[in-house]
Structure formats: structure tokens, C-alpha cells
Design goal:
The protein has eleven helices and ten strands. It is α+β, with helices and mostly antiparallel strands. Strands 1-7-4-3-2 form a five-stranded mixed beta sheet. It has a three-stranded antiparallel beta sheet with strand order 8-10-9. A two-stranded antiparallel sheet has the order 5-6.
């Protein structure tokens, strides 16, 4: 005898009909039947109140592997042996699934459950009591809370925490040097004097350095500068002075004068012949003049005369 095991999914109406038939003491002569018609079929269960009448439940077949490709089902039969011992027997692997279609009774039962759920929900909802209604109660006068004392330091409420990262980001955006290419910034910094790598990084960070440029400082120094092994300082290569811009926005007036002297020395020319002037030179060597005031100035006494 070949046994076929099916995974059966019943509706609540079909389950109750089958349960009532099994629990009925006066079992009629008619028995439940199942009929297969290709991938469809019908289950017939006798009624308890009218044994001659049958309840029909249509179903369709599907493959269990399509619904659950990661596993399989085995059909197990549990029974008690003649010795009174409970035993389990495998009837085979479940390969097909029977799904009973819903009937009008199932839809009606679903609607009744939804209506019952809505009623329970509405019973737990908040009720609005209208004035003059049957649930009207006494009026209670609510006192307004006393006004609190004003804050002696109202600026505390208006103060907001400051994010240092946002402040640095704004400064870097407004700084014209921070918008220049990273390589040019390194060149114009080393054009004034030698720097060590940490010093270069510290100077560049004043005007803003992103993480990408910070990681490329080593290759950039190797490209534009020579390393002094004695003090680990970097000096700008000779041919890189051709790329120097005299109007570099990061230079102060003193830096520009220093750059002109360096360029004059590199070219082997006097400082005055490349744009410098005796007046500019005297600004760096002569002491500042005394401010003019309305009061008469006191003459200093010549100690050699004494």
C-alpha cells in the first residue's frame, strides 16, 4: 500500500465541521470523502444535524518545496502499541500541500470578528462629555499658577553651545590661502626659510587642511623640497623658485621684502635692481621715528660732553 502524506491547511469553518463530526456520538453511516481533480479537489464532510447532507470544501494543491525551499516536512504517526507503549512511525516526506479555500461562512466569520474588535476598541476610547449631558459634573475652578520670577541672567537662555569644528570651517572658508592648491601653499611656505615637517603641517593647519591633503604632505615635500639629514628640515628646490608668486595672499609686507632679497641672492643681483628700494631697506634697519606731539621735546644730554 502506497501512502501519500499531505500538509493540509484548513479554514476555521472546515476545521469546525471536521471537529464536530469526530465528536459526534451518533456517527452516521456516511463518511467524509476527498476527491482530487488535477491540482484541485473537494472535501465532503457530513452535517451533524442532517447526516444525508454534506458540506463541500474546495481546495487546491501546491508543492511544499516552492513555499519552503530551505526545509522539508515528515509525516509522523503516533500510536500506542499492544504493550501499552507509545510509538512513532514515519509515514514519509510531505511533498504537497492542500489549502482549503475560504467559503462564505469564513468571510462572514471574519466580518463578525472585525466588528467585535471595533466595538472593543471603541469601548476603550475616550468619551467626550457634552455640556448639559447626563454625565455632567461639578465645575472646578482652576487657579492659574503664579508667574515665576524672571531669570536674573536672561542671556543664559539665548546662549547656544559653540562647535569649534564649525568655527574652524568658517575661518577656512573665508581665508583665501586655504582655497589655494595644497602644493602651492607648501612651495610658498618653504620659499622664505627651511621648515621641519611638523612645522610645515602646523603652519598649514592655521589656514585649514583637509584629511586628504594632510596625508599627502610627505609626497609633496619629496617633490618640491630637499631634506637636510642633519636637522631633518626641508629646503625648497632651486628650480621651484620659478613658480613663486610675489603677490601670494599669505605673505605679509615683511615676507615680501624677505622674498625679494632671497630672489635677488638666487639671481646674483643687487637687491635694489629687482624692485627693492633704499627706502624699503631703511625701513628694516632704521629705528622708528618719534611721534609728533604738541608738547616740546626734551633734548637728551650727551654724556660724552659731560
Amino acid at each position: 500500500v502506497v501512502l501519500l502524506a499531505f500538509h493540509v491547511k484548513l479554514t476555521e469553518t472546515a476545521f469546525r465541521a471536521l471537529e464536530n463530526y469526530q465528536n459526534c456520538k451518533n456517527v452516521s453511516s456516511s463518511q467524509p470523502t476527498i476527491q482530487f481533480m488535477g491540482l484541485q479537489g473537494r472535501i465532503k464532510i457530513p452535517r451533524i444535524d442532517a447526516p444525508a447532507d454534506l458540506r463541500n470544501f474546495d481546495f487546491y494543491l501546491s508543492n511544499v518545496g516552492k513555499d519552503n525551499p530551505q526545509g522539508s516536512f515528515d509525516c509522523i504517526h503516533q500510536y500506542t502499541s499492544s504493550y501499552g507503549v507509545s510509538q512513532l512511525d514515519s509515514l514519509g516526506t510531505v511533498q504537497d500541500k492542500i489549502t482549503v479555500c475560504a467559503t462564505n461562512d469564513s468571510y462572514q466569520m471574519t466580518r463578525e470578528r472585525m466588528t467585535q474588535a471595533e466595538e472593543e476598541k471603541s469601548s476603550r476610547s475616550t468619551k467626550v462629555i457634552k455640556p448639559g449631558g447626563p454625565f455632567g459634573g461639578k465645575r472646578v475652578q482652576i487657579r492659574k499658577p503664579a508667574p515665576s520670577a524672571p531669570d536674573p541672567v536672561p542671556e543664559r537662555k539665548r546662549s547656544t553651545p559653540i562647535n569649534p569644528a564649525n568655527t574652524i570651517r568658517k575661518c577656512n572658508t573665508n581665508n583665501p590661502v586655504g582655497q589655494k592648491p595644497y602644493r602651492d601653499r607648501v612651495i610658498h611656505l618653504l620659499a622664505l626659510k627651511p621648515y621641519k615637517k611638523p612645522e610645515v603641517l602646523a603652519r598649514l593647519q592655521r589656514d585649514g587642511v583637509n584629511q586628504k591633503d594632510r596625508n599627502s604632505l610627505g609626497p609633496t615635500l619629496q617633490q618640491v623640497a630637499n631634506l637636510n639629514s642633519k636637522d631633518n628640515s626641508y629646503t625648497l628646490k632651486e628650480y621651484m623658485y620659478k613658480e613663486i608668486q610675489k603677490d601670494w595672499p599669505g605673505y605679509s609686507q615683511e615676507d615680501r621684502l624677505l622674498l625679494e632679497r632671497i630672489l635677488a641672492r638666487k639671481a646674483g643681483l643687487p637687491y635694489n635692481s629687482i624692485g627693492g628700494s633704499s627706502q624699503s631697506e631703511s625701513l628694516l634697519t632704521s629705528p622708528p621715528k618719534e611721534p609728533i606731539s604738541g608738547s616740546p621735546r626734551k633734548r637728551t644730554v650727551d654724556f660724552d660732553f659731560i
